[in-house]
């Protein structure tokens, strides 16, 4: 469901593309490459109509295949969103609602398990501790490379006097510990696996999942990309959330500072794009690209100041944190096509299995997008939630949303025990007329609000019970707490 200006921008952005062969009669893919880019807003890509940010490699994937104009994540948090991508199920079904505390139960069926069962070699290379194997996303992978090598914060922990307590010392040491790696390091590891496979050819197809943590905060792309979009800035913003929030809380923040943070984010987007290009070049050099189905998406977007929500993503369900790019290219995929209607992250798994000629698991919340790539005029209803901080942060409210057609319903519930008897707040937005979600129409259009509230209730009721005692949770050890704290997920 794209507004008319977005449709026009998309058509202009891809007007140079010459459509390739249709799926009918064309040979299907042998291999699958899935690339997930953390925290990537779709409106930063040239293929989505952005003329300023350089994303030539993402754009060429779009030009070769299908671009989904309005793709919605089901939850704006890394682990649960990847759980939905890998299972085709809503968080209400797979039970993963937050980072660190939750894990994907082994009873869930992942894309890697499906493909492994059908003879695929499977390998994954992840860019951040939040997707460590202990959280269940490694299910079905022959190789799961989650070795981290660098801290998020640069330098060494600050020196403390002898009077500092041991817990403080331990936290500060862990804050600078290794729990992420830049995209180029992920590409080196994945390319080495591909070269090994080329050196010892196998009749088995492969499934390769590559996760880039960039452009997650801190926005710290290597020179010159870190400041390429705002080279003249001389203020205090260094791309970290710490610097931003410190300046904001002190009242010293300026609009110039905000613009520089956005420019820093854009530099990270271009860096992630270059890493994707290096990965695709490796596939091409080894002769794998032409026989590989390529899927590129993100786990969630990022707030850039909409509704006062700056450079974060986990605790809201507004469109900027839910909208993600979704691109498909390769054998069996039509070239240069734009699908305008709303689709969902949970639709990716059944789409990939159909393109590979394999059955999707059941039960599943997603549905194949293959008919839409052939021109079927369909738009999907989409559920979204955030339970961010249910156990790891003192977040005051939880959010659920349900979108259908032009309408989007948002339900906000308080987590304060003192307000347990308060009914949730409900807001209704017309996304066609009000893409910024600024005007609540719930009192003006009560029937639409009731219908979406009923659909939301059915979705939640169809999943797991919302009792913490029944969810897939475990106590976090000190290492997990420290690394998630450094990622900003624990306070």
Could you tell me the radius of gyration in angstroms? Answer: 22 Å
Oligomer: single chain
CATH topology: Alkaline Phosphatase, subunit A
**Mass-distribution shape:** globular
Helix content: 25-40%
> Poorly predicted ranges (pLDDT <50, ≥5 residues)?
2-25, 465-476, 487-491
The total number of structural domains is 1
- Residue fraction in strands: 15-25%
Tell me the total number of β-strands: 13
Q: Using the coordinates above, name the CATH class.
A: Alpha Beta
Mean pLDDT: 85
Tell me the distance between the termini.
37 Å
SSE order, one letter for each helix or strand: HEHEHHHEEHHEHHEHEEEHHEEEEHH
CATH architecture: 3-Layer(aba) Sandwich
**Main sheet attributes: strand count, strand direction, barrel closure:** 9 strands, mixed
Overall SS class? alpha/beta
The number of helical runs is 14
Q: Layout of helices and strands, plus pairs?
A:
Layout (H helix, E strand, L loop, with lengths): L3 H10 L17 E7 L18 H9 L1 E7 L5 H10 L3 H4 L16 H7 L3 E5 L17 E3 L20 H10 L7 H17 L6 E7 L28 H10 L4 H31 L6 E6 L21 H4 E2 L1 E4 L7 E8 L3 H8 L14 H4 L8 E5 L10 E8 L2 E8 L10 E6 L15 H16 L16 H10 L4
Parallel strand pairs: 1-5, 1-6, 2-9, 3-4, 3-5
Antiparallel strand pairs: 2-7, 2-8, 6-8, 10-11, 11-12, 12-13
Helix pairs in contact: 7-9
